[in-house]
Amino acid sequence: QVQLQESGPGLVKPSETLSLTCTVSGGSVSSGSYYWTWIRQPPGKGLEWIGYIYYSVNTNYNPSLKSRVTISVDSSKNQFSLKLSSVTAADTAVYYCARQMGPLNWFDPWGQGTLVTVSS
Amino acid sequence: SYELTQPLSVSVALGQTARITCGGNNIGSKNVHWYQQKPGQAPVLVIFRDTNRPSGIPDRFSGSNSGNTATLTISRAQVGDEADYYCQVWDSSNVVFGGGTKLTVL
Hints:
A: mainly beta, 7-stranded mixed sheet, 4-stranded antiparallel sheet, B: mainly beta, 6-stranded mixed sheet, 3-stranded antiparallel sheet, 9 strands, 0% helix
């Protein structure tokens, strides 16, 4: 049974880069059967898709965030990561990692989420 | 860009049937997925590809999709079904989520 766990700093200063890691257990991030995704949720608001990576190198990002987002894989640690540059208070959110069940499919399971606050 | 419209809230009496709608232009031509999110928890998939239930999801949860509206139906609603529900589709290789619906069981 696949499980995902987010980790990273809970506080980031404005204009800096937010960096989070998702550790996958019970499955391989190198598997071509799945895509690995980041989704965020500002406090009290809805879900926003950030992007995904598959086959360790192929990525697709939300156009509204594309210029600031990088998703990468570390196969040796069975992890995938999110970097979001030039953050502002609007990037304050709970960040979730999730497994996507192939192209144009659903997300299952999700990690528990981690709150990142952007503040000086 | 493609938009999905959900009611902000839906109320249902205990034991009755709740229907949560998700509106979008010709959404019937897309695959719709539904997630349940309880307070302080991560979303959980409850319906995929319009009508399919993942293992472990009660058969009280069902889905349909036609025309401009997809619907999540929860039969015999329980207090434990109180949560936010989100629909999701893909449009032009991008993910679109509905704004979410808060279900209250009275």
